[in-house]
Amino acid sequence: MGARLVTAGDLTPGRRVNTIHDVEQPGDYTGPITGYTGPGMFSCFFLKPNARDKDVPARARSVQHVNFPPHSYTLHQDGKITISPSIGDQTRDGGPESSDGWHGFLEHGVWRQV
Questions:
Q1: Is the separation of the CB atoms in 61 and 38 below 8 Å?
Q2: What does the H/E/C string look like for the chain?
Q3: Which of 4, 13, 29, 41 could crosslink 46 through cysteines, CB 3.0-4.6 Å?
Q4: 114 vs 107: CA distance, rounded Å
Q5: Euclidean distance between CA atoms 104 and 114, whole angstroms
Q6: Is the predicted pLDDT of residue 62 greater than 50, yes or no?
Q7: Percent of the chain having pLDDT more than 90?
């Protein structure tokens, strides 16, 4: 896939999948799942919409996650998820902080760039 111009407000349909192993395409997400990041901790795992874009940082190509808390989620009746606050573009694992090129929201299963 070639590079694409990403701008604030861009929308990408998400796809909720059953397991972490099914997260394959940009926009895929699964969760909430418990037990992967700590006892009693719930998480959502995903590939951000830019995960297969040309020239993105290596970590942008990897499955990422957010934990609940500090994030919160709403599970809608149709099975789609909303996560808040925004899903950032910086790493929080103690490594060097640099942007992965995508910061935004997952709202009712749709990714929105800010």
A1: no
A2: CCCCCCCCCCEEECEECCCHHHCCCCCEEEEEEECCCCCCCEEEEECCCCCCCCCCCHHHHCCEEEEECCCEEEECCCCCEEEEEEECCCCCCCCCCCCCCCCEEEECCEEEEC
A3: 29
A4: 12
A5: 5
A6: yes
A7: 69
